[in-house]
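sorry to bug you again but im stuck and you know this stuff better than me. what follows is a protein written twice so to speak, once as letters and once as structure tokens for the fold. id like you to explain what the token line says about the fold, in plain words if possible. anything you notice is useful, everything is just below.
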Amino acid sequence: MSELIDSFRSAWQRSFDFEGRSRRPAFWWFTLANFIISLGLILLSGISNVFGWIYSIYALVVLLPTLSLSVRRLRDGGKHWAWIFITLIPVAGTIWFIYLMCQPTAGVLPPGLS
């Protein structure tokens, strides 16, 4: 539970950090925490429309830490940050992006990715 909270907090603290690397556990713990919060807000929106608005705001605000964490994770896997645009291809792009996020840490980064 501690790692989940630490990863979530770290992603928010590094929201504007598009440099460096982020390890696989940090990415997946943040993804899990984000899923739990989103699911909770969606379920609560059935009780009151206020939670629907809160979820909408949260979904917009969480884009920045998700983007920066994804860029750092791609870099950690030895890929260029531009691979994030693969998600623009419906279905296959999302599957490929998940595959890239599951790749192990690259030992030495290629030139231009450090």
Notes: Residues 2-101 form one domain. The CA atoms of residues 38 and 74 lie 24 Å apart. The longest helix spans residues 24-45.
